[in-house]
Amino acid sequence: MSRRSFAHRSAAAFIAAVIAPLTMMGSASGAEPVDVDSVVPATPAAEQLDRLSVSTTQIASGLRRPTAIAAPDDGSERLLVAEKPGTVRVYHPDTGLATSPLLDLTDRVDDSSNERGLLGIAASPDFAETHTLYVTYTSLPEGEVTLSRIALSDAAQDPVPADVEEVLLTQPHSEFTNHNGGQIAFGPDGNLYWSLGDGGGSGDPLNAAQDLTTLLGKIVRIDVSASCTDAYCIPADNPFVSDAQARPEIWAYGLRNAWRFSFDDEDGSLWIADVGQGTQEEVNRLAADQGGANLGWPCLEGTSVFDEARCDSEAEYVDPVFTYATSVEGCAVVGGHVYRGAEFADAAAGVYVMTDYCTATGWGLDTTDDAHPSAVIGEFPIQTSTFGEGADGELYVANDLPGQLHAVSFELAPPAVGCSVDYQVRSHWGTGYIGAVTVVNEGTEPVSDWSLTWTAPAGQTITSAWSAVVSQTGDLVTAVGAAWNSSIAPGGSVSFEFLGTHGGTVAVPGQFALNGSTCR
């Protein structure tokens, strides 16, 4: 996690403004100046990220504006999907989406505006023993954001009566209807985390995000385990537990509307997606021991100063690890998860996956590199509203409208191949000729199941070949290895010859490609 004082940021901005004209003077006409600090050397992980693609498969439909996904770790393979009006539906891979809700809280949930409703759901880490769910919602009549515990009589209870609800914690939220936050999740430490927006309006008119006496604009961390005899307890290592002027529940602050966050179970880091005012969407990463972090709002929006009058020269603001332009690339960041599943581990292990509500662009961030290089890896369904992680670590998304549930999968394209080709005409006569080709693997990895393609010059047709299988469709020629030479070792080569006919010329083809990569 990078920390920087506002004074340091201001000085950096001044220096950048001074040197920018000098940088531009040395660049080609119309070229953008290079931001030296943003240049990240290529790494093997970053190279693999460039080859990663994401896709989704619809597995259920008919949801009513889904807002959150939870997966009880009880061996049931169920997914619990929260719906904005106040219901929780169950999806099972064998039976699909249940018609009747597991839980119905519509009599107490205020979903009167676009951002209000049932917002979050989490199953306790010991659900198999305690059968306990947690939900967050905006409550009637004034939109108070509410955290509640729901105790099932047993893990399979269906439906769950609403009167078993125990309200644990509330925060008044009546001035505006937006920026409610609402994500809840258990961290690897066993504590429950909850994000709350800054109270709404534009530009944090309540001055809540930097105010430690309110939970608005914060992520809170509480202990709801059986060892706590109260509704909830404050973990002893919470950052403001000894500050009489601060709410002890607060774990992080300076947030606008961090409606999506998740944990990386491998290192305990917290990944926070905070929706911007109109300039930048941002993703922040907090290490497991970084409680008390100030994310900067409303002084900062992403990496830009939003309201300098509300900046504190003594404050240390946490830099985001990723930003994108709101008006250009989307409208609201939808934070996802660091992939830790098994099915696609070879392709996507350790990649943080996210999207945008409006553009559906899918991004992947490399979590193994402190610079967090990123790449566009595909698209998600339009209006994706939430990510979820199954008990097995596989990922799911739901989209707001038309209300569908999708399974997420990944694919890794073969690495780019460094290669060279030597093409010779051994002999030619009348209308026939013999050609010989040698392909050299100049890369550092073996080329398996190699396939060499080229465009045959006009009038040339290949009729037979040896030491390779050669076919021709139109003017496109494809040669693949035989069973005994289908792989080319680094620095190695394969050779083959073929017999063909020509229409008066035996010109050499202009370009060859090995497994899709152009050879020299």
TrEMBL record:
A GO term for molecular function: oxidoreductase activity
Please give the superkingdom of this protein's source: Bacteria
* PROSITE patterns recorded: CBM2
One of its Pfam families is GSDH
Supply the alphabetized keyword list: Oxidoreductase
| Transmembrane stretches, start-end | none
The leader peptide range reads: none
Q: Which InterPro entries match?
A: 6-blade_b-propeller_TolB-like, CBD2, CBM2/CBM3_carb-bd_dom_sf, CBM2_carb-bd_dom_sf, Glc/Sorbosone_DH, Quinoprot_gluc/sorb_DH_b-prop
SMART domains per the record?
CBD_II
Q: What is its EC number?
A: 1.1.5.-
Gene Ontology terms describing biological process: carbohydrate metabolic process
Task: State what protein this is by name.
Answer: Soluble aldose sugar dehydrogenase YliI
Q: Record the organism.
A: Actinoalloteichus hoggarensis
